[in-house]
Amino acid sequence: MSYLRAVLNNNTALEIKHLKNIIKYGNKLGHNTSKYEKELAKIRVKKAAKNTKTTKKVKIQKTKTIKKTTKTKPKTNNLNYTVKNIYTKNNMIIIDFYTNITKKYIDYSIDKTKYSNLYLFDIKGSFKDARPTKLQISGIDRIYIIQKEKNLLHIKVRDKSKLNPIYIVNKKQIIIKFLNIGSNVNSNTTKTTTNSNIINVNRYKRKVVVIDAGHGGKDVGAVGSNKKYEKKVVLAVSKYLYNILKKRGYNVHITRKGDTFIKVRNRTILANKKNADIFLSIHANSIAKSKAHKVKGVETFFLSPARSARAKRVAAKENSSDVRSMSKSTKNSFLTVLNQSKITASNKLAIDVQQNMLYTLQQRYKDTVDGGVREGPFWVLVGAQMPSILIEVGYISHPTEGKRLYKSSYQKLLAKGIANGVDSYFLKNP
Ligand SMILES: [Zn+2]
């Protein structure tokens, strides 16, 4: 029985069991589970109140005292570190505390990369609304608030220009002020009129893409004829894709650059850590010898609770052993809480990637088959908190497609098609 059904049937014990599952595996996957933890605490308070088999009067008193203690306890203990509010005003981020604070409450560092600057503010404190949360100051690319640890808040500010931040600690308040916002706007607009490529670079520079090269190490993936391994093909395609997207101005990360084994959940943990905008898991397909000469083509999957026979077959292959060990009820718990907006975005991303990959391949190989966009329960995608897809770049079991998949020119073509799909997705969903 799923979590939702447990809620509908008012089955508290089951509800608690499912929530525990979601929190336990959510934490392993690097999710923010605070929503479910709160829900669990609420249900437990309710349950405790119900279990007191006494007169009505006593019952009411009990629930009241329980509520009181749970409410006041964290406040009295941590009021020094409790952040009241975080907001922006003009060119400033303002952090309000309940009590007076000192300069020791803030630490500042800057991380410069080729494409942008990351300004990181470590704040000693807990903020109930850090989930992570986005803040906005016009002229700054990105501002994120993340509760890193119990009493450690991260405020991450990312921008291509030098923002020259300063900060002031004043009584119960920290004020971070940016002295230099939007300084490169003018120089960009003059450039964009002369070279249209620069528009694209600036536009997409902010997007973070995590590429997951499927399998690796002892996990060889599918095996084609002459012991050709899936892990080798997908690594090559992933690396080409990495380079193309980087050249186009994306902030790109890859789960492996060599022949190494990585647990399924660690792949999406990377994506969550990097605050990725999209997650692309690259795989290649295979089928039994008797059908090998008949079945070929590219297909793209996105995560959903739907289980068609074909999706089931592919999912069974791609879902690795560390995921298979999850209990059935845990899997059901996850599928029922899948975020519908994430499913929709993943579906859109899958369509753009599939269409562009197919179009690019068919320019040179007219016989490329369209396997279409499909949905299914792919566990490598479950952990990702952003739109995520699994791309099957072809069948290594097919006599001709299998050979092509090992040619670098074909691998580059595949990578180019996928990259075009990513461009197309972000153009429509900025
Ligand atoms: Zn695979």
Task: Output the keywords.
430 residues, alpha/beta, Immunoglobulin-like, Aminopeptidase, 44% helix, binds zinc ion
Structure summarized in a few sentences:
Keywords: Hydrolase. With 430 residues, this protein is of the alpha/beta class.
What's the architecture of the largest domain in CATH terms? Answer: 3-Layer(aba) Sandwich
Number of strands: 15
The Rg value, from CA coordinates, equals: 25 Å
Instruction: Outline the low-pLDDT stretches.
Output: 1-8, 53-76, 184-205
Number of domains: 3
| Proportion of residues in extended strands | 15-25%
What is the helical fraction, as a range of percent?
Answer: 40-55%
Overall spatial form: globular
Strand adjacency order, main sheet: 11-10-12-15-13-14
Distance between the termini: 38 Å
Q: Could you say which structural class the secondary elements and strand pairing correspond to?
A: alpha/beta
Order of helices and strands: HHHHEEEEEEEEEHHEHEHEEHHHHEHEHH
Question: Mean pLDDT score, rounded?
Answer: 79
CATH T-level fold name of the largest domain: Aminopeptidase
The ligands found in this model are:
zinc ion
The total of helices stands at 15
Major β-sheet, in short? 6 strands, mixed
- CATH 4th-level superfamily of the largest domain: Zn-dependent exopeptidases
Task: Kindly provide the name of the CATH class of the largest domain.
Answer: Alpha Beta
Protein name: N-acetylmuramoyl-L-alanine amidase
GO biological process, one term: peptidoglycan catabolic process
GO molecular function, one term: N-acetylmuramoyl-L-alanine amidase activity
Organism: Malaciobacter marinus
